[in-house]
Amino acid sequence: MTKKQRYEHVLNFFQEHIPDAETELIYDNPFQLLVAVILSAQCTDKRVNLTTPALFRKYPTPQKMAAADFDDLFPLIRSISYPNNKTKHLIGMANMLLEKFNGQVPMTVDELVQLPGVGRKTANVITSVIDEQPNMAVDTHVFRVSKRIGLVSAGASTPLAVEKELIRHIPEHMVHRAHHWLILHGRYVCVARNPKCHECPLTQWCKYYETFVAPYAGQD
Ligand code: SF4
């Protein structure tokens, strides 16, 4: 099977079965999504969603968050990983939004990565989710799943290399959805330790399955 065929089959499957895939983070506006994505680094979306309602109640705007005291904000995100750094990042990010971007969340990757706590992955999430820009955020799920299926070459060893390869092959209009497809597949089926190949609908197009599972099927 050529790489082109693999992409076609996998993307068609997702398009047909989960056409409306979207982020599992709960938010009402770009500022809230930006806060939620910053909090989600090294943390589950579930935990972030438990935390953000109280945070958004107390700090609903960049203005309010920029004026927050560390000691007031910190307890609200204490249960999230790295609360110390993330408290500093949120307050710093809100201040920069006011000082540099007129209180609005900018919609380019180059501008977003200037904000404290925002790296390329976060910037790609924001621009693809809010603005449907063809930017691929490569998190641990996207990295693992795209390599296992064989969407990217074994030599793609960094998130940026994986991002570039995916972007090269996925039709532009599908990129913002494909990000969620790969994340959801990695979160619920192609999980890190023991991928659930026995319940996966992608086996016939998956390189990992072809190499490591199919040859040994029925041997136990
Ligand atoms: S067949 Fe297995 S390795 Fe391949 S995508 Fe499905 S769960 Fe992942």
From TrEMBL:
Annotated PANTHER family: A/G-SPECIFIC ADENINE GLYCOSYLASE/ENDONUCLEASE III (PTHR10359), ENDONUCLEASE III (PTHR10359:SF18)
UniProt cofactor note = Binds 1 [4Fe-4S] cluster.
Q: Which PROSITE patterns does the protein's record reference?
A: ENDONUCLEASE_III_1, ENDONUCLEASE_III_2
Please identify the protein, giving its name as recorded. Endonuclease III
Q: What does this protein do?
A: DNA repair enzyme that has both DNA N-glycosylase activity and AP-lyase activity. The DNA N-glycosylase activity releases various damaged pyrimidines from DNA by cleaving the N-glycosidic bond, leaving an AP (apurinic/apyrimidinic) site. The AP-lyase activity cleaves the phosphodiester bond 3' to the AP site by a beta-elimination, leaving a 3'-terminal unsaturated sugar and a product with a terminal 5'-phosphate.
Q: Which NCBIfam families does the record cross-reference, listed alphabetically?
A: nth
What the entry lists under Pfam families is as follows: EndIII_4Fe-2S, HHH, HhH-GPD
Q: Which InterPro entries match?
A: DNA_glycosylase, Endonuclease-III-like_CS2, Endonuclease3_FeS-loop_motif, Endouclease-III_FeS-bd_BS, HhH-GPD_domain, HhH_base_excis_C, HhH_motif, Nth
Where, in this chain's numbering, is [4Fe-4S] cluster bound? 190, 197, 200, 206
> GO molecular-function annotation terms?
endonuclease activity
Co-factor requirement: [4Fe-4S] cluster
Entry keyword annotation includes Metal-binding: yes
What family is this protein classified in? Belongs to the Nth/MutY family.
EC nos:
4.2.99.18
Catalytic activity field:
2'-deoxyribonucleotide-(2'-deoxyribose 5'-phosphate)-2'-deoxyribonucleotide-DNA = a 3'-end 2'-deoxyribonucleotide-(2,3-dehydro-2,3-deoxyribose 5'-phosphate)-DNA + a 5'-end 5'-phospho-2'-deoxyribonucleoside-DNA + H(+)
Query: What Gene3D superfamilies has UniProt attached to this entry?
Result: Helix-hairpin-Helix base-excision DNA repair enzymes (C-terminal) (1.10.1670.10), Hypothetical protein, domain 2 (1.10.340.30)
Q: Which UniProt keywords apply?
A: 4Fe-4S, DNA damage, DNA repair, DNA-binding, Endonuclease, Glycosidase, Hydrolase, Iron, Iron-sulfur, Lyase, Metal-binding, Nuclease
Q: Which residues form the HhH-GPD domain?
A: 39-188
